[in-house]
């Protein structure tokens, strides 16, 4: 099939390359000329494992190209909209400007009977509004909402072998076209849920709200563990054995960040308020508050471990991205902790395998170093804030040898407390004594 993908960020670039891998003829469109040039020459504009290989493979077949001109989408049979829906600057709501812009641009070029598919995460009710907008613009293209559940760091696998496909449609022709697009994925036995626009939009919002709630639940237990001397990691292991609960997404630490979970729960709250159902998701305010408290807790622990003040103390911060296997520092708890320590006057030396460039754009005041060894040299405290494998595998003896004094905050609860204590470290995790 002939496919266009509008928006070539974390979601769109992977989706476009994956659609070409499925055998379709794909054009990826983005307004950022530099990004388009990079993608067209096989360079991924951000870190995503497997994307460079997928991009190279798809470009080599001649089935994938990139352009800044929306006119190049005109002959596509299916258009995917994968633009961002960031949080509005002065409220919790989602900024739909890019989605509306993409739909307006497509309404002008999409062929009659072609299908426009929304993939962006949007407040429930957006698809219906967009359909009306398309009709007013005189377009008779079809519309579907097909939310994306990919995780950064696993985006390629999540796109090519998703847990499920969800179609929000108002017309069987839309279902048929999506079935054709995803034929290979469906043949592999992937579950497919066909529903209306509102349910499809809500599935995505609900999934992210649930995941965020699960993380804040275990972080709330970490707070209780801290007050009682209990160990939240053992608690998570024990309750996780119950298949109804499950161990995944039960890791306590400095909480969730990134371009999705934080802004999605806030947008959900804002939308529920508009719908007169604020009380239904009022707990999400707590989920957000618990999450933000854990960053403060990590900073308080640093102050405590340095006997009351971090002022002019040398602190190594390991990790800047919101999670490992990503260069993304959007709403990153790790970067936030580094910035807060710096704000308290600490001499912070921060490092990350992939995130320094993005971190520097957000917090140019911080001191960045290329390696963990440089960050650790003469430090009085090390704070592990993003659980990259290379930090999890650090040898406590070697680390102690580099530092001025052996103190560690394991803000992701991924180190072995016994091993670090045996090497002479004062060890503190979050929610474990
Ligand atoms: C998330 C959803 O998982 C994905 O389905 C959706 O499409 C987009 O949002 P992503 O933001 O890439 O994906 O990252 P995810 O792996 O979900 O992690 C989110 C945050 O939660 C990270 O900051 C991570 O460190 C944190 N987290 C995750 C925890 O603090 N504890 C856990 O147990 C799991």
Automatic annotation (TrEMBL):
It is an enzyme of class 1 (oxidoreductase). It catalyses: UDP-alpha-D-glucose + 2 NAD(+) + H2O = UDP-alpha-D-glucuronate + 2 NADH + 3 H(+). Keywords: NAD, Oxidoreductase. SUPFAM superfamilies: 6-phosphogluconate dehydrogenase C-terminal domain-like (SSF48179), NAD(P)-binding Rossmann-fold domains (SSF51735), UDP-glucose/GDP-mannose dehydrogenase C-terminal domain (SSF52413). This is UDP-glucose 6-dehydrogenase. Residues 316-417 form the UDP-glucose/GDP-mannose dehydrogenase C-terminal domain. The keyword NAD applies. Pathway: Nucleotide-sugar biosynthesis; UDP-alpha-D-glucuronate biosynthesis; UDP-alpha-D-glucuronate from UDP-alpha-D-glucose: step 1/1. Signal peptide: none annotated. Belongs to the UDP-glucose/GDP-mannose dehydrogenase family. Its EC number is 1.1.1.22. InterPro entries: 6-PGluconate_DH-like_C_sf, NAD(P)-bd_dom_sf, UDP-Glc/GDP-Man, UDP-Glc/GDP-Man_DH_C, UDP-Glc/GDP-Man_DH_C_sf, UDP-Glc/GDP-Man_DH_dimer, UDP-Glc/GDP-Man_DH_N, UDPglc_DH_bac. PANTHER family: UDP-GLUCOSE 6-DEHYDROGENASE TUAD.
